[in-house]
């Protein structure tokens, strides 16, 4: 029961936080570098297979990971060591690992990269191990880096009197500056008289605003939108001038258009987050012992005769939520989704109830927002 009420408090807190953010959700200008990226300026993923040696008996069990033994034999042969035929290796201090890294844009040979080392066998821990020289390849199969170094594991493992304790994950470690770039990735940034901007989120209104901001700052016909995401920008041909131009371009302030209304519901904790005020249409939902009725009635204000006034039609809404006979919670005012969620929390609705009710509202067309469940 205590856990149940704790979950409800978390849900209510999340909704209140979302509502407070909605009140201050006025549009504001953002830097263009936060809204878009330059086409061709991107990271590239690298991967390699290697061996970690020097473990304190926490390596792979070779009877269950034969690829570790095969890797050790192959490595020794490359180093000029020939093993006797039919020899059986018992390797407790060696672990087969996968090494991953991200190659940043414009990386040049000699630059250092951080790498992540992950066990792919049944090693108990990589602490204290040393990664042997491991080639890092890209998606095209070419070698772009070489990794080697001491593996740093952030977890802690201890045992005493037969009992074991483990904190964090001991099968994954990192090597700071553990890889050296051996090959640069060619980019098309310096080719042609144009660069292309790619918005992080496709939006025709935002693309139009970006084009207007660029043309106001750099002159007419400098930028033109290709579609709702890609914008072509004329840039200088010289490398130095182009870099300076892109630096000024990224610092432009643009007010993005308001995005689509979205409601995110965490089905495990019941947290509800809205990116903007979401209103509901008339609907009635019945779920188990809960019933939700949302009704909007027009209120007509008619001026006195000969007062030269104007007849005004305004909406007056109410939310009627029932859980048990005699228990009714009535809210008057705007029919916003935040009011409905708070009212449901007030009578003890579970996250599963919230999920079912919001899905029913979305299916009935009452919820005019994108519903995302995580």
From TrEMBL:
<comment type="similarity">
    <text>Belongs to the FlgI family.</text>
</comment>
<keyword id="KW-0282">Flagellum</keyword>
<comment type="subunit">
    <text>The basal body constitutes a major portion of the flagellar organelle and consists of four rings (L,P,S, and M) mounted on a central rod.</text>
</comment>
<keyword id="KW-0975">Bacterial flagellum</keyword>
<protein>
    <recommendedName>
        <fullName>Flagellar P-ring protein</fullName>
    </recommendedName>
</protein>
<dbReference type="Pfam" id="PF02119">
    <property type="entry name" value="FlgI"/>
</dbReference>
<keyword id="KW-0966">Cell projection</keyword>
<dbReference type="InterPro" id="IPR001782">
    <property type="entry name" value="Flag_FlgI"/>
</dbReference>
<keyword id="KW-0969">Cilium</keyword>
<keyword id="KW-0732">Signal</keyword>
<feature type="signal peptide">
    <location>
        <begin position="1"/>
        <end position="29"/>
    </location>
</feature>
<comment type="function">
    <text>Assembles around the rod to form the L-ring and probably protects the motor/basal body from shearing forces during rotation.</text>
</comment>
């Amino acid at each position: 029961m205590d856990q149940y009420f704790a979950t409800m408090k978390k849900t209510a807190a999340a909704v209140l936080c979302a509502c407070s953010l909605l009140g201050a959700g006025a549009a504001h200008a953002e830097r263009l570098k936060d809204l878009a990226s330059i086409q061709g300026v991107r990271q590239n993923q690298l991967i390699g297979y290697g061996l970690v040696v020097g473990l304190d008996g926490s390596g792979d069990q070779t009877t269950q990971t034969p690829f570790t033994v095969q890797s050790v034999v192959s490595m020794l042969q490359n180093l000029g060591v020939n093993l006797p035929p039919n020899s059986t290796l018992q390797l407790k201090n060696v672990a087969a690992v996968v090494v991953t890294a991200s190659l940043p844009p414009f990386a040049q040979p000699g630059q250092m990269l951080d790498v992540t080392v992950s066990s792919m066998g049944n090693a108990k821990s990589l602490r204290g191990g040393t990664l042997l020289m491991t080639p890092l390849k890209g998606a095209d199969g070419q070698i772009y880096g070489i990794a080697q170094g001491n593996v740093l594991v952030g977890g802690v493992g201890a045992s005493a009197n037969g009992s074991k304790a483990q904190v964090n994950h001991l099968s994954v470690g990192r090597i700071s500056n553990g890889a050296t770039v051996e090959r640069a990735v060619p980019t098309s940034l310096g080719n042609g008289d144009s660069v292309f901007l790619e918005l992080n989120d496709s939006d025709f209104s935002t693309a139009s605003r970006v084009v207007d901001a660029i043309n106001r700052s750099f002159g007419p016909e400098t930028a033109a939108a290709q579609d709702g995401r890609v914008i072509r920008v004329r840039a200088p041909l010289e490398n130095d001038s182009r870099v300076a131009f892109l630096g000024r371009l990224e610092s432009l302030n643009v007010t993005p258009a308001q995005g689509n209304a979205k409601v995110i519901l965490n089905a495990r904790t019941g947290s509800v987050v809205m990116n903007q005020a979401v209103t509901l249409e008339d609907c009635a939902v019945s779920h188990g012992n809960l019933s939700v009725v949302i009704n909007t009635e027009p209120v007509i204000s008619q001026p006195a005769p000969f007062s030269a006034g104007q007849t005004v039609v305004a909406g007056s809404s109410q939310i009627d939520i029932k859980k048990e006979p005699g228990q009714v919670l009535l809210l008057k005012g705007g029919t916003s989704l935040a009011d409905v969620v708070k009212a449901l929390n007030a009578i003890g609705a579970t996250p599963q109830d919230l999920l079912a009710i919001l899905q029913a509202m979305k299916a009935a067309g009452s919820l005019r927002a994108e519903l995302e469940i995580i």
